[in-house]
């Protein structure tokens, strides 16, 4: 932040598993979660292991997350919007949720 | 060449707004070609010139970048051509397929709009330039699926666009020219870089010293990074490798070890380094999905091109790292050549080779340089020995190394496709982009890029056509051109 | 191994799509043999054997009437076929579209993961003495002065044997030609779409539209698609089926993918929001009368054929192997091989 002389627009909040998180405008969901010290937000459908960002550029699909009820969103691509409800995604993410 | 675009001017769709795509778009637009520049990011720049999100108000983004002057020239060129209606820049467009017209009536580029990638967009054009870049290769080791283990390029991308760090104490490891700038960038942004662990053998550098010495600018760049690493007191361990990452819910430490002359781990040289982040990479691979679906021939891992950057499919050009890994400067040269060739060929002319003599000379030299780098920066020859049977190799389908070894052994699979069918390695969300080289290495088969007709997942409703297709058939129905100038 | 048509199929073990006749008899025999293999320790899980049942649905009353006629004939041949009323369809398959006219449930339809099935069957064969040579291309079928088969010459050397079985699938015609026999096997291309992983039992049966049977039986070279939708043990849903005779053209076809997606989303509207992750293609070994070539070739002593099963090769593999083994050991085969005679096309002038 300091390095690039950032003067961000005012922060807004989203929730992650019910917890309130401050986000700077333009940040992706992954960036917002990292800034809040959160590094995992998915469990795998086989052994239930935690995952978060791996490739950071939309290729690996490890950072899948449920945003506003929509499963399988890539946290490293989707920009956070004020009021987003972000939830840890378990397994296929499709149980009882909207597809897509 | 006037500032207004004649109706009926030839139209090229450029896929990818990194250095190659931008250089090509600007060169072609300056010569009367109508350009639609299609990119998945919100801002032009690609991975190399990845821009901080506008809302972050970064006043000195160049602090995270190199060759900023070149970027400014490209950015200003894009803005001018956009304002003049010669370039239409479609951001947040994720291309999933390029369709060849049936009666040689050009191409249709199919994209999905926005980060959710659900709304379809189609762009029709006379020709296509594929400038889809590359992505990072990572070879597996025990613990590499732990949160906090990220690709070196991923750590850099998150820093450049979101101005965030994955943790406080970082180990940067693997092999390749990317590791030094990543370590420098992370250190400059405030992370403690506990170690830079590079597998390359200094003796191999010496062996290729003469070939490398022909590129003083590149060597000076390396020396600058080395100086910056020293300034940040980053401990550099050359000819070392990460043996394992440790932790339960996230990485807490890594074990690194020295390599011997054969690329084996030296017994007893292991040491544990506490950290909360490991940024790791073993080189880059080209994105070739769109090219392969079009039927373009590959040459090794990249798309094969001729002197003018044409693929063997008429009307399809390719430039930048999709044709082979070689960095931003090579991408710029290839993009410029492609843009000039497109402008000439779409007007039924042969390009004047003198018009791109300098770019062609740079291209030759840089390709040679990166060919040498490719032999210098090589993953440890015996990396598979460190992969324990229970190490997950395919991250998506959670396929352990034991399953791949069994497929290649007991079940008799002799090629990567059969290994994939027997184990599901490479069948998940990322379609083998992350595990492809590792699966080939563990199975003892030759690595071949797998065919992926869809460059990214596409909703069945979009395929079925039940979702309305928005068509960008000309530049008039696209984004407000003044928008581009304000970035 | 399994890198040709086997690896490109869905692993269908079906009776539902076969009209009464020799192919259906072979399917019933094969189904029993697959069940025997699946009963070996650990095999059912290893090859993902799933007796999931097939559900054929009709959108209108005409289609339903035709389907019921077919089912009646199949019942007479020994197939279990249960009529399913319009109101019961969604009990069996909760995500199916509303408004369908009805269908027929075939509890004997099953599925395996074809590559795993092939690999494990080969493993079982090797355990009892068979040997496997991969990467060896057959260049020549060796014959005696009298014309009888005496082995093969391959890229890896000669193998001598008094009998050669042609199990080259879509490439069976070429192998037959090496032995001097003509066999009209033609490639019939098919695409499969694979979705993102979904929770288990999202799609419970192999579900397809009644017009699929007509497409399978068709002789047309032109593109035909009829929706076939099924879940897999691993999570993704597979979507077929297209048929077209375009030689060995491996180019991906977006129009075919679009037609498959349109058919599948009509049967299962929820799929509109589900993403296709990949698509693949394969070449079915098509025979002009839709019956495989099984048994000795009267023209070339020692040459046996076991190929040309079109889209049913995995399903019919066990029965085919069983019949060939019986013939090779000079036993009387369980089924009459006359309809499958490899040289039957000669009389028709082919």
TrEMBL record, chain A:
Lineage: superkingdom: Bacteria
Pfam family, one: Fer2_4
Keyword annotations of the record: Oxidoreductase
Record-given protein name: (2Fe-2S)-binding protein
TrEMBL record, chain B:
Keywords: Oxidoreductase
BFD-like [2Fe-2S]-binding domain: residues covered: 392-441
Residues in FAD/NAD(P)-binding domain copies: 11-325
Pfam families named among the record's database cross-references: Fer2_BFD, Pyr_redox_2
InterPro entries (alphabetical): BFD-like_2Fe2S-bd_dom, BFD-like_2Fe2S-bd_dom_sf, FAD/NAD-bd_sf, FAD/NAD-binding_dom, Metab_Enz_Cyan_OpOx_G3PDH, Opine_Oxase_asu/HCN_bsu
UniProt keyword annotation of Cell membrane present: no
Keyword set includes Oxidoreductase: yes
Region feature (Disordered): 465-487
Domain of life according to the entry: Bacteria
Protein name (Swiss-Prot/TrEMBL): NAD(P)/FAD-dependent oxidoreductase
Species per Swiss-Prot/TrEMBL record: Streptomyces vastus
């Amino acid at each position: 932040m300091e390095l690039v002389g950032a003067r961000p627009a005012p922060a807004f909040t989203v929730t992650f598993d019910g917890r309130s998180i401050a986000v700077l405008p333009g940040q992706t969901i992954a960036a917002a979660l990292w800034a809040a010290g959160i590094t995992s937000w998915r469990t795998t459908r086989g052994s239930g292991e935690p995952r978060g960002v791996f490739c950071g550029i939309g290729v690996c699909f490890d950072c899948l997350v449920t945003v506003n009820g929509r499963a399988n969103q890539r946290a490293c691509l989707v920009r956070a919007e004020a009021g987003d409800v972000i939830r840890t995604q378990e397994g296929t993410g499709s149980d009882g949720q909207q597809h897509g | 060449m006037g500032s207004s675009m004649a109706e009926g001017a030839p139209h090229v769709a450029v896929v990818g707004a990194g250095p190659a795509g931008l250089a090509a778009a600007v060169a072609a637009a300056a010569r009367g070609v109508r350009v639609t520049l299609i990119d998945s990011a919100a801002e032009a720049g690609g991975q190399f010139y990845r821009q901080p999100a506008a809302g972050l108000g970064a006043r000195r983004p160049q602090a995270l970048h190199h060759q900023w002057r070149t970027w400014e020239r490209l950015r200003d060129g894009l803005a001018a051509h956009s304002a003049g209606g010669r370039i239409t820049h479609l951001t947040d467009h994720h291309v999933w397929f390029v369709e060849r017209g049936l009666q040689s009536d050009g191409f249709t580029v199919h994209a999905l709009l926005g980060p959710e990638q659900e709304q379809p967009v189609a762009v029709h054009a006379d020709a296509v330039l594929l400038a889809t870049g590359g992505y990072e290769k990572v070879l597996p080791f025990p613990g590499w699926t732990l949160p906090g283990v990220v690709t070196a390029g991923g750590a850099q991308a998150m820093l450049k666009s979101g101005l965030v760090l994955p943790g406080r104490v970082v180990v940067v490891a693997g092999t390749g020219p990317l590791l030094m700038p990543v370590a420098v960038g992370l250190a400059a942004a405030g992370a403690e870089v506990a170690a830079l662990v590079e597998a390359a053998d200094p003796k191999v550098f010496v062996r290729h010293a003469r070939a490398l010495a022909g590129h003083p600018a590149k060597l000076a760049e390396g020396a600058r990074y080395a100086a910056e690493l020293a300034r940040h007191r980053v401990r550099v361990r050359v000819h070392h490798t990460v043996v394992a990452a440790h932790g339960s819910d996230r990485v807490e430490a890594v074990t690194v070890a020295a390599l011997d002359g054969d690329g084996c781990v030296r017994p007893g040289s292991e040491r544990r380094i506490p950290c909360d982040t490991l940024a790791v990479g073993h080189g880059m691979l080209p994105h070739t999905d769109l090219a392969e679906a079009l039927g373009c021939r590959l040459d090794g891992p990249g798309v094969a091109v001729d002197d003018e950057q044409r693929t063997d499919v008429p009307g399809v050009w390719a430039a930048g790292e999709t044709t082979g890994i070689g960095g931003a400067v090579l991408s710029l040269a290839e993009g410029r050549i492609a843009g000039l060739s497109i402008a000439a060929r779409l007007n039924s002319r042969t390009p004047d080779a003198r018009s791109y003599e300098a770019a062609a000379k740079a291209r030759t030299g840089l390709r040679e340089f990166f060919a040498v780098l490719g032999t210098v920066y090589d993953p440890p020859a015996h990396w598979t020995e460190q992969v324990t049977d229970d190490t997950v190799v395919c991250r998506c389908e959670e396929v352990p190394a034991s399953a791949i070894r069994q497929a290649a052994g007991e079940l008799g699979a002799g090629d990567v496709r059969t290994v994939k069918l027997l184990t599901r390695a490479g069948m998940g969300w990322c379609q083998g982009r992350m595990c492809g080289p590792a699966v080939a290495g563990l199975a003892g088969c030759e690595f071949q890029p797998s065919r992926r007709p869809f460059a990214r997942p596409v909703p069945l409703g979009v395929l079925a056509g039940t979702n309305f297709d928005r068509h960008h058939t000309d530049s008039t129905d696209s984004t407000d051109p003044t928008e581009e100038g304000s970035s | 191994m399994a890198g040709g048509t086997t690896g490109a199929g869905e692993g269908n073990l079906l009776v539902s799509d076969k009209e009464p006749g020799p192919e259906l008899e072979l399917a019933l025999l094969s189904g029993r043999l697959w069940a025997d293999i699946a009963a070996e320790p650990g095999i059912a899980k290893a090859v993902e054997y799933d007796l999931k049942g097939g559900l054929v649905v009709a959108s209108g009353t005409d289609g339903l009437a035709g389907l019921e006629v077919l089912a009646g004939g199949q019942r007479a041949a020994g197939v279990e076929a249960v009529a399913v009323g319009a109101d019961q369809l969604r009990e069996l398959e909760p995500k199916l579209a509303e408004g369908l006219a009805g269908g027929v449930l075939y509890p004997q339809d099953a599925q395996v993961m074809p590559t795993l099935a092939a690999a494990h069957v080969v493993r079982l064969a090797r355990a009892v003495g068979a040997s496997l040579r991969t990467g060896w291309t057959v260049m020549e079928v060796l014959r005696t002065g009298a014309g009888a088969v005496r082995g093969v010459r391959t890229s890896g050397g000669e193998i001598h044997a008094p009998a050669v079985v042609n199990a080259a699938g879509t490439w069976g015609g070429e192998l037959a030609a090496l032995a001097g026999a003509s066999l009209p096997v033609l490639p019939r291309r098919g695409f499969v779409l694979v979705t993102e992983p979904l929770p288990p039992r999202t799609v419970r049966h192999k579900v397809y539209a009644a017009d699929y049977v007509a497409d399978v039986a068709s002789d047309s070279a032109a593109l035909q698609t009829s929706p076939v939708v099924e879940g897999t043990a691993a999570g993704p849903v597979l979507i077929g089926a297209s048929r077209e005779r375009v030689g060995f053209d491996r180019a991906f076809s977006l129009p075919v993918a679009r037609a498959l997606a349109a058919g599948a989303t009509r049967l299962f509207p929820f799929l509109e929001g589900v993403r296709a992750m990949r698509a693949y293609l394969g070449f079915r070994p098509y025979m002009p009368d839709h019956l495989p070539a099984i048994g000795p070739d009267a023209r070339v002593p020692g040459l046996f054929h076991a190929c040309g099963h079109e889209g049913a090769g995995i399903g019919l593999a066990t029965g085919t192997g069983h019949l060939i083994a019986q013939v090779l050991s000079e036993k009387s085969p369980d089924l009459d091989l006359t309809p499958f005679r490899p040289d039957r096309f000669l009389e028709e002038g082919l």
